[in-house]
Structures are given as C-alpha cells and as structure tokens.
C-alpha cells in the first residue's frame, strides 16, 4: 500500500488542460486528427457486436460477483497477443490479475497470475499492459486500500510477460485522501520536437471522488503525461458524465485509438454500478481531451479494449454480462 503524503493534483504552475466544449470540427480539427495522429477519419469505430465473437476466458463461477474481464491487450513483436485481465470471485472481490498469451487472440494460455495479497490490497481491478519497444513489458495494476474506498496504481516491469509475476512493484499513481485512482489506459506516442524524436507516455485514469460518503462510485477521467511512464504530470479532467444523460453518474475511458477516438464506460445511477455500458467519444482540439458522442450507449458491455492490427483490422476484448449475473471475457475480430 502507498504510505506517506500522496497527491494526484497538479502542482502550482503546471499547465492544466482546458478542454474544448465544442466538437473539433472544421478544417483545423480535421487536420489535427489526421495529420498529427495518422487517424482513421471516416472509418467506422470498431465496436462490440460487429465481428466474430468468441469467449476468451469464462466466468470463474455462476451468479453475481463471479467475473472475468477488465482486459488490457497488446501485440508482441511476433504478432501474437498478450492479454491481462482481472478475475473476481464473489467471496473475495478482485482476487488476481492473469496475464495470458495467445497466437490467435482467442485461445488464451495463462503465463502469470498476480494476486492481490502481494500488494496488500483488498481488491484488484483493470490493469494496463504496455509493451515498451526495446525495453520489455510493463503492467500497471490498480489496487484497493483495505478498509477504504481509496484506490492506487502500482507498476510492475519485466523483460517478458512471464517475468511480471516476480517483478518488484512500485506506486506510480498514489491517489490521495480525496480521490481514488484506477482502471488506467496508457499509450506511448512518438512526437517530433524540432529535429528530435521524443517519447510521450499518456494516461487516461478513472478518478473516484471520496468527498461524499456513500457516493464514491462517481467517476470521471483525468489525463496525465510522462517522459518515462513512471513520473507523471497531471493535467486535469478530460471526460466526465453529462447531467441528465445515460452517463450522468460518470465516464471511464477504456480505449483510445491512434486517431484519438475513444470508448468509455458510463452509467446513469449509483444502482447501475458494475453494469456500465459502452459509449464513444471523439477528440477535442486540446490534447488528451475527449467529448462524449451521441445520446445513448453503443453496447451492453464494459471495459472494452481495442487492439489495432497490422492489416488494418482490429481485435476487441471486453467484459460481457451473463443472465445469471456472472461476467465473461469475450473477444471479437473485425477485419
């Protein structure tokens, strides 16, 4: 567990994101989306229910609270898939994160199991799995503080996915007494500054305000950047729920595509906690900012991750509810 003074808030003098209230639109917005990020302007957003569906990992049991899901996936150098996901039993909350390999993206072979006890956590939720070019693998694990609604995020680093189980953890997003942080989405981007190539790490983090007892399920997404993926600079909230809308209780980014379009989990009420649905968002003109698009969810699933494929297709992973209250991990191939 993190100890000592912790804070996620930007320090005085640091630039905060000022998100655009209007759609990017227009000539400048189009140039930003397609030129800087080589985007997929005009292409359909890859969404659940549009490809070939397979169960990648079944629910661990039957009934409410028996959940497999919250996936984060990446391609290895040889084109195979590595997928990290959370397994939760009704009797023990989020018990472990499983890291698995797959040649075809559908049949998963676990290579590492990382339990909550090694972090001293009450529960684990969605991890973020990142392949670092030339430097191995990173797994960002979100952990619940026992006896509290607080969450923090730890980092594991190893040369291979198999090595993550024995890696030493360190806290990189501690949260604080007023905010719990969890369910990270982390991307690496190359940026040209002058004639020098710089690597920029970006994070979209789900933040839960803890200022109102009994209402800690509220959520919003904040944005942070880093030069090394370890020391981060917070920029502020970039996506939040809309009063009176289907996502009024909060918005949690789940995937960000290369062209900056995104998917997110939302819900209208506290009672819908754990039954979030998927919405879509598009980029605002300020880097990192997003705007919810549409007035209804697009899929009855949560924790959608999207893996762009070399042939232009996509593979999706997401957590899908079953009629008995359990959840399974599904995947779809979209070509």
Q: Could you outline the blueprint of secondary structure elements for this entry?
A:
Blueprint: H1 26-36, E1 52-57, E2 67-75, E3 81-89, E4 93-102, E5 109-115, E6 128-132, E7 136-144, E8 151-158, E9 170-173, E10 179-193, E11 196-209, E12 220-226, E13 232-239, E14 250-256, E15 262-267, E16 277-283, E17 290-293, E18 302-308, E19 314-321, E20 327-334
Antiparallel strand pairs: 1-20, 2-3, 3-4, 4-5, 6-7, 7-8, 8-9, 10-11, 11-12, 12-13, 14-15, 15-16, 16-17, 18-19, 19-20
Helix content: under 10%
Helix and strand element order:
HEEEEEEEEEEEEEEEEEEEE
Stretches with pLDDT under 50, minimum 5 residues: 3-16, 20-42
As for the CATH topology, it is: Tachylectin-2, Chain A
| CATH architectural category | 5 Propeller
Largest sheet: number of strands, sense, barrel closure: 4 strands, antiparallel
Number of domains: 1
**Radius of gyration, in angstroms, nearest whole number:** 19 Å
Report the CATH superfamily. Glycosyl hydrolase domain, family 43
Mean pLDDT: 87
> In percent terms, what proportion of residues is strand?
over 45%
Separation of termini?
43 Å
Task: Supply the key terms.
335 residues; 20 strands; Tachylectin-2, Chain A; 1 helix; globular; disordered N terminus
């Amino acid at each position: 567990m993190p100890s000592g003074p912790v804070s996620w808030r930007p320090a005085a003098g640091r630039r905060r994101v000022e998100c655009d209230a209007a759609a990017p639109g227009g000539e400048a917005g189009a140039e930003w989306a397609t030129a800087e990020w080589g985007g997929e302007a005009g292409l359909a957003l890859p969404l659940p229910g549009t490809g070939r569906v397979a169960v990648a990992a079944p629910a661990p049991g039957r009934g409410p609270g028996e959940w497999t899901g919250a996936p984060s996936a990446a391609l290895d150098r040889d084109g195979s898939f590595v997928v990290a996901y959370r397994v939760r039993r009704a009797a023990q909350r989020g018990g472990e994160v499983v890291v698995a390999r797959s040649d075809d993206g559908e049949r998963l072979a676990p290579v590492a199991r990382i339990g909550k006890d090694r972090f001293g956590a009450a529960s684990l939720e969605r991890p973020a799995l990142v392949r670092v070019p030339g430097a191995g693998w990173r797994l960002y694990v979100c952990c619940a503080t026992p006896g509290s609604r607080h969450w923090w995020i730890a980092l594991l680093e190893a040369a291979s996915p198999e090595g993550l189980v024995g890696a030493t953890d360190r806290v990189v997003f501690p949260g604080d007494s007023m905010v719990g942080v969890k369910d990270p989405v982390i991307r690496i981007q190359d940026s040209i500054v002058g004639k020098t190539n710089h690597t920029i790490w970006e994070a979209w983090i789900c933040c839960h305000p803890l200022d109102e007892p009994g209402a800690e399920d509220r959520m919003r997404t904040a944005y942070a950047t880093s030069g090394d993926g370890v020391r981060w600079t917070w920029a502020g909230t970039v996506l939040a729920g809309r009063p009176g809308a289907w996502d009024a209780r909060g918005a949690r980014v789940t995937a960000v595509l290369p062209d900056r379009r995104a998917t997110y989990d939302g819900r209208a009420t506290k009672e819908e906690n754990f039954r979030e649905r998927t919405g879509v968002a598009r980029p605002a003109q300020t880097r990192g900012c997003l705007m919810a698009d549409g007035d209804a969810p697009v899929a009855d699933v949560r924790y959608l991750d999207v893996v762009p494929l070399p042939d232009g297709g996509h593979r999706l992973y997401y957590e899908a509810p079953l009629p008995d209250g359990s959840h399974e991990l599904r995947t779809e191939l979209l070509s």
